[in-house]
Amino acid sequence: MPSFDEVLKEAGEFGRFQKRVFFLLSQTGITFSSLFASVVFLGRAPGNFWCRIPGAADLGDRCGWTLEEERNFTVLPLQLGNESATGECERLDVTWDTSAGCTSPLALPGNHSTGSPPLAPCHGNWVYEQPHSSIVSEYDLVCGNAWMLDLSQAILNLGFLAGAFILGYAADRYGRIPIYLLSCLGVGICGIIVAFSPNFTVFLIFRFLQGMFGKGTWMTCYVIVTEIVGSDQRIVGIVIQMFFTLGIIMLPGIAYLIPTWQGIQLAISLPNFLFLLYYWVVPESPRWLLTRKKGEKALKIMRNIAKHNGKFLSPHYSEITISNEEVSNPSFLDLVRTPQMRRNTLILMYAWFTSALIYQGLVMRLGIIGGNLYLDFFISGAVELPAALLIVVTIDRVGRRLPFAMSNIVAGIACLITAFLPEDIPWLKTTVATLGRLSITIAFEVVYLVNSELYPTTLRNFGVSLCSSLCDLGGIIAPFLLFRLAAIWLELPLIIFSILAAVCGLLVLLLPETKGISLPETLEDVEQL
């Protein structure tokens, strides 16, 4: 009986059929990256806001004040006693006399006395010039509640983490396509509920669920693409990352054109319902079917692939070699039971963690140093396109291991140099920082490919999902690490990033080279790499 790779070679390793499936599934990268980075625009600064004094609303309605007039009457008396006061997080500890006139703001406080006016912290009584522009103004995530915006991103990454475990396991047990379609449905439904959440608690719950299902769509589509092409064509695992970058590039344009956060949320969520149409055009992974002892179904799909590719399978292909490895429900112990698997798993987990922490840290650092949010975000996304092109050009010539190691080391060196460059040479500081972003993007994209090539078919989806869960842990830690260390010294996070990246670059040199090697089918195949 022929092996799966022999049958795939005759049916076409990257023909018309695989190209169609690749293009369709790659669209998932656009929606997933939009979800991944959406907090930048969902949680953008709401513009001017201030704390309303009790009684101001009634008086404002009676007097017919505009919001600007109410703000002046609220903030100016406050600033008379404290010039540094902004009126955003504190207010006069008074109640306005609603029987007073409408023209003299100094006469409005009913218990005004000489000296500095008494102040009180603001609690849920804010007024925004743009009340529905972001979740910040929608749910009052300002002043003492500002940390809750960081929490919303941490909750999303926690959802990614849960999705890696739950849906990664489910895809190995129940199939790639059923879990992919279920995840697409979940992302769409949860996204709609997030957009119309009546309070922040409901927002967090369904943002977590949207993150969980979103991770299911991305990881499962990636595994399907790598399993239906030949060993010489697995570079598609890198090319699919370009669609992730495309989503990053498109997001600021969407946010610029849509003025409300609900509109942005719907724009990045609703397209997932279109992916449900893939039920009729994208088949189950034949590699997965073989591991579940479903050789006839796998052969039927292979004949269909050959037909669409303009080829014909030999009549003697009545069966395909099925792995003799006993199929069981995968667990973490399967990933560390044998020496090679244990080494690969631990190094890949660290690589995922490091890549995500540095990548997200460098993206969020743009918000600290200021600038045009839309333009800076677009440029930071555009920088990632050369990363994928560099990988496509080099990875099949020099292999996976060397670019993987060098990209981490260069990223570490770039972060270290950026930290100590003087501020009076902004062009040089920006250039070196961009080199660091480019390098860590290369590392982030290569780890996807290497991870899928170092696990057997029976454990591939679970292994990729579990190792990439460390990416989500890095995403949870990144905002807290960045902002806490930057409060001590703005460049301190870059020092930490440089150390983590350099260590990762050295560790990945211990991984086996997988250039031109067939995907391993069993644990024995992995041990022989």
UniProtKB/TrEMBL annotation:
Pfam families: Sugar_tr. It is found in: Apical cell membrane; Basolateral cell membrane; Mitochondrion membrane; Nucleus outer membrane. The lineage of its organism: Eukaryota, Metazoa, Chordata, Craniata, Vertebrata. Signal peptide: none annotated. The keyword Coiled coil does not apply. Its main location: membrane. It catalyses: (R)-adrenaline(out) = (R)-adrenaline(in); dopamine(out) = dopamine(in); (R)-salsolinol(in) = (R)-salsolinol(out); tyramine(in) = tyramine(out). The chain crosses the membrane at residues 21-42, 151-170, 177-196, 202-225, 237-258, 264-282, 347-368, 374-395, 402-421, 427-450, 462-482, 488-511. GO terms for biological process: dopamine transport; histamine transport; monoatomic ion transport; norepinephrine transport; serotonin transport. Keywords: Cell membrane, Glycoprotein, Ion transport, Membrane, Mitochondrion, Nucleus, Transmembrane, Transmembrane helix, Transport. It is a multi-pass membrane protein. NCBIfam families: 2A0119. SUPFAM superfamilies: MFS general substrate transporter. PROSITE patterns: MFS, SUGAR_TRANSPORT_1. Belongs to the major facilitator (TC 2.A.1) superfamily. Organic cation transporter (TC 2.A.1.19) family. This is Solute carrier family 22 member 3. Residues 103-516 form the Major facilitator superfamily (MFS) profile domain. The keyword Transmembrane helix applies. GO terms for cellular component: apical plasma membrane; basolateral plasma membrane; mitochondrial membrane; nuclear outer membrane. It comes from Sylvietta virens. One of its GO terms (molecular function) is monoamine transmembrane transporter activity.
